[in-house]
Amino acid sequence: MIVGIDIGGTKAMAVLVDPASNRVEASIVAPSSGNDFELVESIVDLITNLDDQTAASIDAVGLAVAGLVTSEGSVRYSPNLPSLIEFPLQERVSNAIGLPVAVANDATAGTIAEAEIGAGKGCKNFIFVALGTGIGTGLVVDGHLLKGSNGFAGESGHMTINYDGDLHVTERRGPWEMYGSGSSLTQMARQAVSARTVSLDELNVAQIDDILGSHLVSAMTSGNKHAEEIFSQFCRDVAIGMSNLVMVVDPSLIIIGGGLANIGSPLIQGISEWLLKIAVGAEHRDPVRLELSPLGSDGCAIGAALLTKSLLKKQS
């Protein structure tokens, strides 16, 4: 058996995968906050928990982390996990569990999963966009995953789309993920209530701090016109970043993963409409298909597990 763990800023999702079928046999979620020592402990606990759920042995572990991850498995920089700056994650976890460990950027891992067993299987040119708390991407061009000279390619959530925008946690202004992520959808909903465009009753919440993007989506799908307008603005901001990527990569397919993929067809429709308006020469290009990831919220963790196959092959 192989294990994949998607490590986010607040939680870690771990999956136990049968390497023969690529089927997820078990999964578990745990907090990921704390210092580097506490995070490694949490990872070990997740692996131990999954080990208790199978009679088969665990042969290797893959880790997916948001941020700049080297080919040697060190995390150079992660905005949401500040304790991991210049941290040798692969070495520390491998020493702690006595097993081979592979480490990659989370969206890169998600892209690998889509290419091997997801919506990108058989597609030579596609972009994977993980819309969650932030935005991560992976780029497949002519059948090859773009890695870059340092392995950092795909940090598209941090590309600037509004230089005069608000300050991000990275201390840079106006990155795409400030406008097209789950965090920004929540912020847009709260701002709408503050501006009295939408009421708390319409969102079915008691106070403004309780508002999540999902409340706006529920109001939108129930036919609330103001919520529909706000959601359309959000889809426009997502489409702005995607349009930039289309100009650079020329994909035939964009796969949407991450937590916001649970919105479903309204998200695909909203982004598609704006993408046609924004992308230069859209009327002269072959349409770019937008699809939801069939792997759901487990995609990046599954990709992390799949990373270990090549690691085990090299060691055999």
What characterizes the major β-sheet?
5 strands, mixed
- What is the rounded Rg? 20 Å
Q: How do the strands line up in the largest sheet? A: 3-2-1-4-7
Structural class: alpha/beta
**How far do the termini sit from each other?**
15 Å
Number of helices: 10
What is the N-to-C succession of helices and strands? EEEHEEEHEHEEEHHHHHEHEH
Domain unit count = 2
Shape: globular
CATH superfamily of the largest domain: ATPase, nucleotide binding domain
Beta-strand share of residues? 15-25%
Describe the structure.
The chain has 316 residues and is α/β, with parallel strands linked by helices. The protein has two domains: 129 residues, Nucleotidyltransferase, domain 5 (2-Layer Sandwich); 173 residues, 2-Layer Sandwich (Nucleotidyltransferase, domain 5). The protein has ten helices and twelve strands. The strands form three sheets. Strands 3-2-1-4-7 form a five-stranded mixed β-sheet. The chain has a five-stranded mixed β-sheet with strand order 10-9-8-11-12, with helices on both faces. Strands 5-6 form a two-stranded antiparallel sheet. 45% of the residues are buried. The model has no long low-confidence stretch (mean pLDDT 94).
Quick structural summary:
This protein is α/β, with parallel strands linked by helices.
Topology:
Layout lengths: L1 E6 L3 E8 L4 E9 L4 H16 L8 E6 L2 E2 L5 E3 L11 H9 L3 E5 H12 L8 E6 L3 E7 L2 E2 L31 H4 L1 H13 L5 H4 L9 H9 L3 H25 L3 E5 L7 H14 L10 E4 L6 H17 L1
Parallel strand pairs: 1-4, 4-7, 8-11, 11-12
Antiparallel strand pairs: 1-2, 2-3, 5-6, 8-9, 9-10
Helix pairs in contact: 3-10, 5-7, 5-8, 7-8, 8-9
